[in-house]
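User: I'll paste a sequence; please echo it back and then give the predicted structure.

Assistant: Echoing your sequence first, then the prediction.
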Amino acid sequence: MNRRTSHSEDSILANWETWLKGILAAAIAGSANGIITGFAAVGIDPMHFNLQAGLRATLAIAMVSAAMSGIIGVAAYLKQSPLPADPSDERDRSDDPARHDDNSPPGNNAPRAETSR
């Protein structure tokens, strides 16, 4: 059994690990914000959300708010950092100037000629 691990596979794994940690961090931050918002409802509407009448309504709004804020946090992270690029996927490198040749269509990020001053 011959097991080889290339540097690029380690790099891909590191990219995915970083990306997943970012997703988790966004979900935790959003959820923590939602829980604080849920408990802030006690001050906003003390008739329905209070600790004397029971925690059920207060915890329910805190959990729903945490879930929604977690989803928003993850969506914001995905907007900023979509899936990590796959180095074998040619579509991800379509704007790489080194990949363009003389047959590139005009306006397609062709390398620019240097000008002298």
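DSSP finds two helices and no strands in the chain. The two ends are 61 Å apart (CA to CA).
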